[in-house]
Design brief:
It is built from seven helices and nine strands; from the N terminus they run ααββαβαβαββαβββα. It has 224 residues and is an alpha+beta fold. Bound molecules: calcium ion (CA).
């Protein structure tokens, strides 16, 4: 026990010093029991959703983007993907009604291994964004997305530029590769921002058909 604790100490220090690139982390598999009893705060077009701070055991949980995905995934969910204005309205309403400062979504910039050499994703700041929960590509960031009547990306941010602006890169070399909905942080109302993925935030989970189907097929008779 003592030996393993000693081994963990330097690893912990390494993680603390390099928040943006914790090594050796993976996506979590769902837990059948958790999937069957997952929190269901609201329902929209066949999917359940919940806000992390409304679940007693997650009330004070603020985590980086990958950990947030994994909390959701244990429940057969993933971070919320916002493909339509109706769905965006539900997310904004939850944020407004509960005075939520910000949340993680599953929005991600395709700037990792496997995204190289894809001319259809260039320039990345406009064409390189997708919903990681279902791998659906987002509309170009510089125009009104399909299914919306306005552009949900904020018109301002740290550099007073429209989002995404990758502003943190100039500060400490960290890319802003994850999509957070911020509540008036830049006096801009509730709006989408690209944010560095290591920041710790509460999150909204949405049912993952892929994970629900996986648990249903491997647990005959389970009620989800
Ligand atoms: Ca930004």
């Amino acid at each position: 026990m003592r030996a393993s604790l000693l081994l963990l100490v330097p690893l912990g220090l390494t993680l603390a010093q390099r928040p943006a690139s914790k090594p050796g982390r993976f996506l979590s598999l769902p837990n059948a029991q958790k999937c069957a009893s997952r929190p269901k705060e609201f329902f929209f077009q066949g999917h359940n959703y919940f806000y992390s701070a409304h679940v007693p055991q997650l009330r004070n949980t603020r985590v980086d983007w990958l950990d947030a995905r994994n909390y959701c995934r244990e429940y057969c969910m993933d971070l919320v993907s916002i493909e339509t204005q109706q769905e965006n309205n539900l997310v904004y309403k939850l944020i407004r009604d509960n005075d939520v400062p910000y949340i993680w979504t599953s929005g991600r910039l395709c700037d990792f291994k496997g995204c190289e050499g894809r001319r259809d994703l260039e320039p990345k700041s406009i064409y390189g964004w997708f919903w990681s929960a279902n791998r659906v590509k987002m509309s170009p960031t510089d125009r009104t997305p399909a299914g919306f009547n306005f552009n949900p990306w904020s018109q301002t941010g740290h550099k007073k530029l429209r989002q995404p602006d990758n502003a943190e890169f100039e500060i400490n070399g960290t890319n802003e590769s994850c999509l957070s909905v911020l509540n008036n942080v830049y006096n801009d109302g509730i709006a989408w921002h690209d944010v560095a993925c290591y920041h710790e935030k509460p999150f909204i989970c949405e049912d993952s058909e892929e994970l629900l189907n996986y648990i249903a097929s491997t647990n005959p008779g389970i009620r989800l």
